[in-house]
Amino acid sequence: MKVVYIPIVLPINFRTFWALGFGTLGLVMLIIALSEGNWLDVTYRNDRKSLVDGDITSVTMSQSLQVVTTTTCYHDVAYPKTPMCGIMQVQFVECDAKEQSLWCTGKNYFVSAFAMLIVAVIGTGLATFAGMYRELVYGPMLFGMGVISGAALVLFRIGANKVTNVGPAYIISYIATVENGSVNVSVGSSLAWAAFGVALIIIASLISSSLLVYRVESRNVAAQNPPRVHVVNMQVAAGGNIAAMAPRPGFVALSRNEFQLNTGDDDDDDLDLIHAPAQPHTHTEVSRPPPTLNDA
Description:
Strand order of the largest sheet: 4-3-2-1-5
Helix content: 40-55%
Structural class: alpha+beta
Number of strands: 9
Strand content: 15-25%
Shape: elongated
Largest sheet: 5 strands, antiparallel
């Protein structure tokens, strides 16, 4: 069996860890909002039984930031149970600035919001990579992307209000009033995804930016100036014994002067790491002095 090691990069700072988590989740939500493209929905339905040929039975309009899609169904006397439907799509980039088309209402706000969200997605991705290396720049960069994406949502709301007040949603509501039908105007799921994404990005930026206001400073001088390391080189006299707790040659120790035993001083062995050999006991016989005349 082959073991595969996957490297995982985790920030040391706890606040940066949560900021990166929230920011990444907000980025994913913005991408989902742009990919779905369901920002404004308008639905009209007429269930009257006394329909004549050509009456509108239902209208469904789906509004995104780039295109508006409308499906209109008509009553046909030849096929009373199967209405005739037609689909129309209008790209905002194809709208003529001089032409006051009903389906192009609010297109400047929608296109601007789409461009700003694209910038926010790219900028948030770059800020995430920058935060892996320079955590202090992550918060300000992410806050700027949050402001841009929030402004994009404001522009969308302005465009949606125009669609509802003077645009196609207003015309569909008017038809529903005249024909005694029912109409429903609601925001799509993309707006909810984008709103949650912007909220998470703002929260992440505030968490990360707090590092610029309050940072835990180390007061440990030893931590700021770590000791040097060296290899213990113990010189033991012939016949000496090294204690069991003493480091062996090659042991890396901190330079705190506990194990510097090779200085030539006899008082350096404060920890009794070296046991001096026992001195042999020699017995010398003292010769008796020669007898003198007084002894006799």
